[in-house]
């Protein structure tokens, strides 16, 4: 039993220590106990901690096992074992939890992360950090852009090492640990003292970056210099020692800061150099993928390479994609994706099967039956002719759009240099310039897309009172509604279009020929049109909004194969209605049940567009 560490709980996002000197003792010892919130369910975390190192297997525990050998290549940390102590580690950055870890474990970690962020913010303020400096010193903590990862430690009693875990100070600001078994001890003066667990509480360990930041302030924080005792061999009935937790520290690509005595921030070097020195001190190999990511990020000015946090709150990690095939290779090599189907019945979106809505949100695509009364003859005709030179007569209003000036941002004709496709974009305000029946088709497609968005937000449990704000007016039929016509010039021997995510909420696609490919579950799949159906896909605005909700929506990555045509066959054509927030609005993301502004729509659109049309075919 240990009553050494002070005890606190978080209430209204502030720490309350049980004893009056609790905070002082916490900052002197470098740790404290934090009461578990009553509604946290730790089971998935405990299961993962006890099984992740076991060999891969089939069966109900499959998702919890096999992490020693699993492909975790998008993580810069991943699985590691040093050879000098008994500990083996699984460390995964927060933005990969949903992808790499069992769903319930990811959910728990996000809750622990949000708790930990609130605790750290309060500790910063108590230590005298100016609120305006927090995002500078902690690399965008308020937007989850700091270095935030989980740690699952397994102490291997069979490993013949002198110690459980080599003595060290945690490199970051804090680590919030779920721990049930003694073994952790910390150096205080000349003495190692136990930091035994307290039932119903986390052990929060204060880290080296916090110590450095506050070292010259009036109330400096001491980081705990700790180790884990060697574990002896156990009977089969006694499980191995484990702990798991969440870490928050500065980003790999940022500077490390310290306040001077006058309370001014000064920079004391790079965080990565500091980390390298610490790894050397522990005789650990410094994470090889971090080094290579840092090198690449200096070589390439344009993309984040996973140096968590992200340089923009909405910029998702770079994904390396297979090369874009031509359409013959595509149909030969990649299976068609079996999309779920839905229809509108009396204005309600109905899927064929009750679980299909969730599958559609997960896949990012589904097929929607074209409602009776939606006439597409005119718009089908328009896309066949709009890129042709203007002619008189019957086709006069259907031709000549390459030279057409359309008022407003990002509209009119686009000749995509690196792709087969050329596009004609026109926003709803300008639809009167189109033939009436084409505008009517656009209106019908927009209504369908908005209906799908409303059904989706309702399905996700988002309060209808918030929809108008969150979607920049789109759910109330305002927002930004763009008709886009696409022509794939088969005479150009390049990809049809680059792999990309649509930036908005929902896209309604009219296509009648194969060629669309999506990146689903780590592989390419053909997204083939079905007569009588639109292809619906979800965009990045919805993915960003729902990233931390229990049912996040996937904005699928998709592109078009190189179109190959003999002279007798018409080039590939398609058209869509893109549904975006108003360009003057903001993009939101849910955190702890509250929508938080993360970026302006304009900044987001600029970032996504530049990635969609550049020449880099393999990276997104
Ligand atoms: Fe540690
Ligand atoms: Fe797209």
TrEMBL record:
GO terms, molecular function: metal ion binding
Name of the protein described by the UniProt record: Fe2OG dioxygenase domain-containing protein
One Pfam family matching this protein: 2OG-FeII_Oxy
Annotated organism of origin: Paraburkholderia humisilvae
InterPro entries reported in the protein's UniProt record: IPNS-like_FE2OG_OXY (IPR044861), IPNS-like_sf (IPR027443), Oxoglu/Fe-dep_dioxygenase_dom (IPR005123), Plant_2OG-oxidoreductases (IPR050295)
SUPFAM superfamilies: Clavaminate synthase-like
Coiled coil: none
Keywords from the UniProt entry: Iron, Metal-binding
Domain Fe2OG dioxygenase: 478-581
């Amino acid at each position: 039993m240990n009553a050494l560490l002070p005890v606190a709980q978080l209430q209204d996002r502030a720490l309350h220590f049980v004893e009056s000197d609790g905070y002082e003792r916490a900052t002197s010892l470098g740790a404290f106990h934090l009461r578990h919130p009553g509604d946290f369910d730790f089971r998935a975390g405990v299961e993962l901690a006890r099984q992740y190192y076991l060999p891969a297997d089939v069966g109900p525990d499959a998702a919890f096992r096999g992490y020693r050998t699993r492909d975790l290549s998008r993580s810069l940390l991943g699985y590691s074992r040093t050879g000098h102590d008994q500990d083996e580690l699984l460390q995964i950055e927060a933005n990969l939890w949903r992808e790499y870890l069992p769903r319930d474990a990811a959910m728990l970690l996000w809750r622990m992360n949000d708790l930990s962020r609130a605790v750290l913010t309060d500790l910063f303020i108590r230590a005298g950090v100016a609120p305006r400096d927090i995002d500078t010193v902690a690399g965008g903590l308020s937007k989850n852009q700091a270095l935030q990862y989980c740690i699952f430690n397994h102490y291997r009693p069979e490993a013949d090492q002198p110690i459980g875990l080599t003595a060290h100070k945690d490199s970051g600001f804090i680590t919030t640990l779920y721990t049930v078994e003694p073994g952790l001890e910390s150096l205080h003066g000349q003495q190692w003292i136990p930091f035994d667990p307290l039932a119903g509480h986390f052990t929060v360990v204060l880290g080296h970056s916090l110590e450095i930041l506050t070292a010259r302030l009036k109330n400096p924080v001491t980081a705990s210099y700790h180790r884990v005792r060697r574990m002896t061999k156990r009977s089969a009935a006694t499980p191995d020692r484990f702990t798991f937790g969440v870490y928050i520290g500065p980003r790999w690509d940022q500077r490390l800061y310290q306040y001077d005595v006058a309370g001014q921030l000064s920079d004391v070097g790079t965080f990565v150099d500091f980390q390298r020195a610490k790894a050397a001190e522990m005789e650990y190999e410094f994470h090889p993928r971090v080094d290579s990511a840092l090198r690449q990020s200096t070589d390439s000015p344009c993309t984040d390479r996973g140096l968590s946090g992200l340089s923009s709150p909405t910029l998702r990690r770079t994904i390396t994609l297979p090369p874009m095939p031509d359409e013959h290779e595509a149909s030969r090599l990649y299976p068609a994706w079996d999309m779920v189907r839905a229809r509108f019945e009396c204005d309600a979106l109905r899927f064929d099967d009750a679980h299909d809505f969730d599958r559609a949100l997960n896949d990012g695509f589904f097929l929607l039956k074209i409602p009776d009364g939606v006439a597409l003859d005119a718009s089908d005709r328009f896309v066949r002719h709009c890129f042709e030179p203007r002619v008189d007569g019957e086709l006069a209003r259907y031709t000549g759009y390459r030279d057409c000036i359309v008022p407003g941002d990002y509209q009119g004709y686009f000749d995509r240099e690196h792709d087969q496709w050329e596009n004609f974009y026109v926003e709803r305000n300008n639809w009167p310039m189109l033939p009436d029946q084409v505008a009517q088709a656009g209106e019908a497609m927009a209504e369908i897309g908005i209906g799908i968005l409303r059904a989706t937000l309702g399905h996700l449990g988002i309060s209808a009172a918030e929809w108008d704000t969150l979607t920049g007016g789109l759910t109330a039929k305002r927002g930004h509604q763009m008709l886009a016509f696409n022509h794939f010039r088969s005479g150009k021997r390049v990809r049809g279009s680059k792999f990309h995510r649509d930036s908005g909420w929902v896209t309604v696609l009219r296509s009648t020929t194969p060629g669309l490919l999506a990146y689903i579950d780590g592989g390419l799949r053909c997204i083939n049109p079905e007569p009588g159906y639109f292809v619906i896909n979800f965009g990045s605005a919805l993915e960003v909004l729902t990233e931390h909700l229990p049912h996040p929506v996937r904005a699928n990555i998709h592109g078009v194969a190189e179109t190959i045509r003999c002279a007798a066959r018409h080039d590939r054509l398609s058209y869509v209605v893109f549904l975006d927030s108003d360009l003057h609005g903001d993009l939101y993301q849910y955190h702890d049940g509250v929508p938080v502004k993360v970026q302006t729509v304009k900044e987001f659109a600029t970032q996504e567009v530049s990635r969609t049309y550049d020449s880099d075919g393999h990276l997104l």
